[in-house]
Amino acid sequence: MTACKNEQLFNPDIRLATLDDLTALVALEELAFNYDRLSRRSFRRAIMSDGSVLLIAVGAQGLLGYALLHLRQGTRLARLYSLAVASFARGFGIGIRLLKACEQKAINTGKTLLRLEVSALNQVAITLYQKMDYREFGYYHAYYEDQSDAIRMQKPLRHMSVEQSSHPLPWLAQRTPFTCGPVSLQMVLSAFNPNYQATPEDELDIWREATTIFMTAGHGGCHPMGLALAAQKRGLSAKVWLSQEGPLFVDSVRDQLKKAVIERVHYSFMKQCKTEDIPVHYSVMPLAQLITAFDSGALAIILISTFRMDGKKSPHWVVMSGYDEHCILVHDPDFEEKDPNQSPLDCQYMPIARDEFEKMSRFGQRRLQATVVLRAN
């Protein structure tokens, strides 16, 4: 009988969790963790979500373990949010089976990089991840509820290159729905000048200096020339690449007065850029040229469409933070604090496949491409 039980522990059934598994999942969570526990509501949300995969290992004894995987839409990134194995099932390879199943799920959905965080005190888990070829790439102090530190680990999946080029870049979250451009600039300013203070006041000051005033609805977004002027005012050297001449974003509004205001702002920015000797190139900045600029120490703020990330056709600014053979890495200032599936860590060094990135970096009917390349003076 014991041999039969052990055999079932070694070869558990790995499957997707259903709502019928909720009670067992909550019970396992209570026993496995003293802090940062997932609630019944969180498990239910994970089971129902298209952006999450909740796998469980089941044997004759019941629930042996689970692994929760989050899939970041529009990117090649997957994140192992939590993994737990029942105490009586430890030592039988359940964690490895669940982790391998997560990796395969990530690969099946086109992901090429799997990341996770683990408590620096959890040596058993750290050893497991190292055995599975996960490598440390970050460390966060007092990350968990009990104030223990977290080690960030990642593993390339399939044929993704392990060689990445990246710059140390502080990550900041936008405090309003309309300040992605200013916060992207604040990240760059913080990278080039350790003494720069990224205050909420300066976030709004940059927006006031760089805004187009109007967009489709609500507050206006930032114009690339406006961001370049704000950057140069704060001590950086700026260059702008635009795929079109003439006023930007006018197709996004119907009201003639709004169109007229956008046009006036555009021509005002053009005049100011000429006065401040900020080069404006009316052409697409090729990806190879962007990477060359990055390698030479520049940082770029890039306009993208968020459609492939959230289904909304909104203009959005991000910062290029690195690249590898297959992907462009970005820092995204847009963090949904109310989204339990999202962590600030998911917004940093986000890998986006190069072909996908080139599609994302075109906005609107005119497929506008806008890049602001910044350097320290």
Automatic annotation (TrEMBL):
InterPro entries given in the database record: Acyl_CoA_acyltransferase, Bact_Acetyltransf, DUF3335, GNAT_dom
Record carries keyword Manganese: no
Name of the protein in its database record: Peptidase C39 family protein
Domain N-acetyltransferase residue range list: 12-158
Swiss-Prot/TrEMBL keywords: Acyltransferase, Membrane, Transferase, Transmembrane, Transmembrane helix
Protein source organism: Celerinatantimonas yamalensis
TM annotation in the entry: 47-68
SUPFAM superfamilies the UniProt entry points to: Acyl-CoA N-acyltransferases (Nat)
PANTHER family registered for this protein in UniProt: AMINOALKYLPHOSPHONATE N-ACETYLTRANSFERASE-RELATED (PTHR43877:SF2), AMINOALKYLPHOSPHONATE N-ACETYLTRANSFERASE-RELATED-RELATED (PTHR43877)
